[in-house]
Queue: 2 jobs
Job 1
Amino acid sequence: MMNLITKLLTPAPQKFHGVMGIFYYVDDAAEAVTQLRKAGHKDLQVFSPVPHHEIEHALEQGPSLVRWVTFGGGLLGATGGFALCWYSIQSWPMVIGGKELFSIPPFTVIGYESMILLAGLANLLGMLALARLPQLKATAPYDPRFQEDKIGIWVPCGPDANARVEQMLKGQGAEEVQVHG
Amino acid sequence: MSQTTTHAAAHGVADPEKRPITQASLNDDVMKLISLPGKWWWVAFIFDLIVLAVALAAVRNLIVHGWGVSGFMRPVMWAVDITNFVFWVGIAHCGTLVSAVLFLFRSHFRRAVYRIAEAMTVFGVLTAAMFPAIHTGRPWFDYWLFPYPNQRQLWTNVRSPLEWDVFAVNTYLTVSSIFFLVGLIPDVAAVRDRAKHPLMKLIYTLLSFGWTGANFQWKHFYGAYLFFAALATPLVFSVHSVVSWDFAMSQTPGWHSTLFAPYFVAGAIFSGVAMVINLLIPIRKIFKLEHIVTLDHMEKLAKLVLLTSTMVGYSYLTEFFMAWYGPNKAERDLFWFRATGHYWWAFWTMFSCNVIFPLVLWFKPVRRNMGIMFFLCILVNVGMWFERFVIIVTSLTRSFNPATWFYYKMSITEVALIVGSFAWFFMFFLVFVRVLPAFSIAEIKETLPMPRRRDHA
């Protein structure tokens, strides 16, 4: 059983082409990203234990699109909640004290809670889809130190550019540079 | 698991509050909770399971023999179980307040304490949701509470506050669980990377969704986290408002008041923060985490207890004022009965624990004394349980018609339900502390000064 789990957790070795630079200082990593992007390496991946605003700016990351997915979920939830109230009260009319069947205040509670529920679920699904989670196949070499205190910059490139990128990363203060492929 | 950094830090500095934290030592400090099962943990866990087994025997009696084995008798058909429901939903509320509301307000002290508070939310709602489910008397028909298409075109009554509760509590359970699990992803990835046992590694790999900490993952993670917080904030206020409307929508004296929604929300946060303090004090002491959850953090939580205590006290006094000032004689009689009738002891326990004793929190030395704080927060939770008991039982025993008046006495079955609810909650909590990071590694790391070459130079 344990052997099976171990086998499951050990994926087949993947072949990557590019250079991984491992940094300790945040400002070094941010400057390296800026320089690499200036040199034409736009498809960088940066790994870090926490997000760093300096690196985000250097990468010129825009806001996440997850908000539109969440908005769609909320809209669907509110509409669905009100529709459920409307349909159910029409399908099984319960007249209480001669009051209106279509009563907006109580329907608002159901509509509101449904809006939050579906917006929350959409937010989750949107985040997972956009962040490409669950990640079944690695997109770059991974190092557990990225969950501790190191920042990794992955520069995908062909063998002809390896030496130049390695030199750039070392010049920007990388503690360690690994060449793949 | 390396604890070199922690020990070095611990030995180097005498004051536990001032132990230095680095990015790597933080991983060690938080993960030592996971790596230490400990004899006392097993003792606590087994004791908890024994208590839970007794409570489950009481639930079995209730289901097999019916609610007659409890002290329930018309007109008091809501007593301990609904008291427990409201109490545990209230406990749950603090987690969302700390994790979502304080996140939106950029209140950084939340980072050290929010994971425990969030876990408390999820386990609190799980505990609360059991009580209405049992209280239906025939729990195997509980699915009738949900609207679903059926051959007779029967639907739930969407105009009933009890049905609003079904929507509110289930939405709260779903959204708070998602919020909790999503927040765990980066930290579980850190635990995954250190896990040695294949089974634990598999569990952490599944829970971390293959997180690597790539820039595009952080971007969407925080994009979504902001919206979780933005959605959970109105949700936390709406859920306890809806719970309060279970009472306020009726015409029963003592319940029919527009004050109920804010009064219940303040009470929920009050008891929840007190419970967080009760959970944090032993954890930070046992695992020597005083440098992560500092006295300043604890003092800020104590101030929240004080603030909400004054709000609850104001609500109690407003209720009495409105009963005296208003035209409703039944309301006036009921409030007089609350303070001086059969249940005077419950009322005065509530009032003392929730309004009078917390006044000592005006003094800074009290807020920074963990022994007094622990004891005081237990009193607050005793008081808040009695608040719900007083609201429910006194109003039901003395309704409009004196012919229906009845003196409710709690049976041993209900005592087992109360104790069992705590055992159920702590069963989840003890497992949580043992297997998941109880403090947010990523968020606390964000508060640390980041290494910069220019500073170093």
Job 2
Amino acid sequence: MAVLIDLVLLAMLAITALRVIFLKDLFAVVMLFGIYSFLSALIFVSLDAVDVAFTEASVGAGISTVLMLGTLALTGRTEKENKHSSLLPFLVVVVTGAALVYGTLDMPPFGHPDNPVHEHVAPRYIEQSPKEVGLPNMVTSVLASYRGFDTLGETVVVFAAAIGVMSLLGIRRRSEDETPESGLKEHQVLRVVAKLLIPFVVLFALYVQFHGDFGPGGGFQAGVIAAAAFILYALVYGLPLAFQVIGPKFLQLLAPFGVLLYASVGLYSMFKGGLFLDYNTLASDPVAGQHYGIIIIELGVGITVFAVMLSIFYAFASQAERSNVQ
Amino acid sequence: MFVLDIISSVLLVAGVFFGLSGAIGLFKFPDFFTRVHAASVTDSIAAILIISGLLLQTSFDLNTAKLIFIFFFLMITSPTASHALAKSARHGGLLSMAERKTSDNSNTQENQH
Amino acid sequence: MSFIIDYYNYWIVVFLMMTGFYIVISANNLVKKIVGLNIFQTSVFMLYITMGKVSGGTAPIVAEGVTLYSNPLPHVLILTAIVVGVATTAVGLSLIVRIKRAYGTVEENEFQNEDDAI
């Protein structure tokens, strides 16, 4: 039964991707990409990767789609007719694809427990992490503790991307005298429902943040969900009001603060006599120390991801409003 | 427990039926507003039936509470989404089929005069 | 039949990868190229997650009475890669916005023509 679900979902995914090639309406392309992300999240669930599915559903289908729509508002929604022939790209793709399919025949069959990937590092994580780190969710243990240095690097990459977007676009705060119509003034129902839902979305983000040690979730997902709540607010009530709730300046402080919080845990553990990001030294009991360390660094990740996602959205949205005014 | 299983499977099958009919309607119906109508069947009645069916499958623990939360969330969001979609189309000047017919007729009459 | 089921996931992943690749090299519009790049990226994620799956296993969260878990390591790698992926996508999209402002178009051949004219 699980195999059947897998087969159907993968086939739907392939059809969705194929449809993207032939569509000229970019609005539909972006919407199909959102569907593609949701479908892949479902496949991740059926392949036991619940944390990944969570992230893909909130990031791929939520934030990416909003950002692409924001870009479309600035660049126009139809693709122009392509004159040069698509034969050469097609040949390149077919040859590469054939080579890759030939390569997959040497891969170990899908799902066997004695495949090479399951032989080396993973058994140690699966057997030892509940004792060494003391968390039921192994993904969080590996992410925040065993591979904590890697995750620090990734948080810095996210932060660097925000710097890139800021230096390319920048957030323009409009002066007080020109306050054009923004937000969805017409949609009374939407405004009421958004007001009703946003507190719960933020509450859910906090749940995901602090329950990530026990179930699927963690800083990355929580940051994105919290950002989505404020993006909803900005979309419905307009950017000027959203700037009053959380201003871009404050976000610019928040993003480095998360990274620094993460790194300072590492420095503090060195100060206590351990290695960088060695949480065992944070408390007298190593397992408790691990728990403190993971909670703090997940908080740092969550803060940075939240601030970065929201300020990227602000950058795109303020560009779009600016072009509307002109 | 046997009775609960039967009720739950009846609910699930009914939910699947409404989901399927909504999907077919989405493809078969002629214009935007009727299609939104078909699509809103899947996220209202089909979702209600499927979630109630699943509720009877749980052993009334944390999962039940989670399903009830999802239920209320869906009850608030999906009608709002349909409403916002239809209202935006209206706002953008899309006419329903009946209106288009009458406006076509008046146009042709004007042309004849 | 079991041969097909053993390799079906990999083949679909290759197909998606090639679809994304085709969109990247054949599309003229930069936004569509970014969508293609994202399709490519998601197919790579799926390859990793496929390799981490163990038949009969469950999600790697300790539960009573479960002995077989899927491999948590690919999940960790991909979880962070998704968030980094959206951050880099945002950088790409903002470059597109700047290109639109500089050239007035996001069609590749059009702004290349403008470049050649200079």
